Amino acid sequence: MPVQFVTTVVLVLWEPPSPRVRELIRMGAEFALNPPPEWLAELDEATLSGADMRAIAADPVLAAGTRRTNRSNLLFWAAANVREPGAQVQPNLGEAPLATARDLVRRGLDESALDAYRIGQGVALRLWLRVAFSLTTDPDELRELVEVSCRSISTFVDDTVAAISAQMRAERAELRRGTHAERREVVALLLDGAPIGRQHAEARLGYRLSRTHTAAVIWSDEHSQDLGELDRAADALAAAADEPRPLTVLASAATRWVWVHGRPDAAALHPAPGVRIAIGSTAADLDGFRRSHLDAITTQRMLARLASTQQVATHDEVELVALVTQDRERAEEFVARTLGDLRSAPPEIPDAVRVFLAEQGNATRAAARLFTHRNTLLRRLSRADALLPRPLAANGLNIGVALEILRWSGGRS
């Protein structure tokens, strides 16, 4: 059940601006209701690039929530100033910021994560001043416009941060009373290597730790996703591993951490649209419990980093790609330099090369795997050679790596 709370906003003495400045604010706010894409890109980059925001930026669900909150705050303030230009704006307690606050708490993050609001405030103010200076050249109007706008934006952010902080405190108190919170706490201790007794941990989790484990992260970064689909995907993962008692932790509203004993059949997983599954390695005992989860997180972050359209990925499949794409810009340069015109060829051409290399140069096996005739495969390989900067025979290793990057980035690398 969602936490219900009431927040009180103190309405300070707020002298309304002059009629002319109210009209200027309304004009600027109407423009801000349809912000240019570069505004949003600048806002997102600033709020997610700070040193204190690394944990949020690296998590696809939290990063997507932060981007939604950026848009929500910008549009909320702009809409209020279209209705009542220059009046005090109430705090934004809409769905996007409250959902993000809940997810931050469930990830174990505190109110310091709300620094993103302060960073966003600086960017929004800079963008707004560009608009203000385009609205009037009269120095008196401009001075009043800037003073009123700066006060409005600052007060709006202060009030919103205070209200969201209250929501996070209420959410944290609610979680402490629930079984999900207990599981989350025990799992966090295990992942951190804390000295918690095995039998005690197993009793609290209802899950055996002395066996072989495979971890998975199941999530959605789509705002409208039916969150019940995440639980159904977790059930399907357990069934694919023949696991009657999986361990499931509610990491956030839109994220499930799952552990099963043994190895699930990834090919049997067909999650609903918008649901993603990242599967870790399979390993034994407590070290395996930790390692598999870290590998699942690595897989999840790689899919997000490459904007992959793949819904299901295993660490075994992507380990090399995850390593070589840590620096996205250099990975893009490597793919472009290695593949040349093959990068933009019809998909059957690079697919033929990738499968041919995976089958260690055996054309018969590669053709069978592609469900095509051997001569068709050879023609495609010949076409690929004509498109590559260096022939396949002379650069097979690099070409294979570049094609794997291309495959997992949905061709956008």
Q: Domains counted in the coordinates: how many?
A: 3
The level of helicity is: 55-70%
Mean pLDDT: 88
Termini distance? 42 Å
Q: Quote the CATH topology of the largest domain.
A: Globin-like
- Biggest sheet strand order reads 2-3-1-4-5
Q: How can the largest sheet be summarized?
A: 5 strands, mixed
Low-pLDDT stretches: 1-11
Give your account of this protein's structure.
Helix content is 60%, strand content 8%. With 413 residues, the chain is of the alpha+beta class. The protein folds into three domains: 19-175, Orthogonal Bundle (Globin-like); 179-317; 327-408, Arc Repressor Mutant, subunit A, CATH 1.10.10. Strands 2-3-1-4-5 form a five-stranded mixed beta sheet. α2 (37-49) crosses α4 (60-83) and α2 (37-49) packs antiparallel against α6 (115-135). It starts with 18 loop residues before the first helix and ends in a 5-residue tail after the last helix. Mean pLDDT is 88; it is low at 1-11. Belongs to the CdaR family. This is PucR family transcriptional regulator. Residues 353-403 form the PucR C-terminal helix-turn-helix domain. Residues 200-302 form the CdaR GGDEF-like domain. It holds the Pfam family HTH_30.
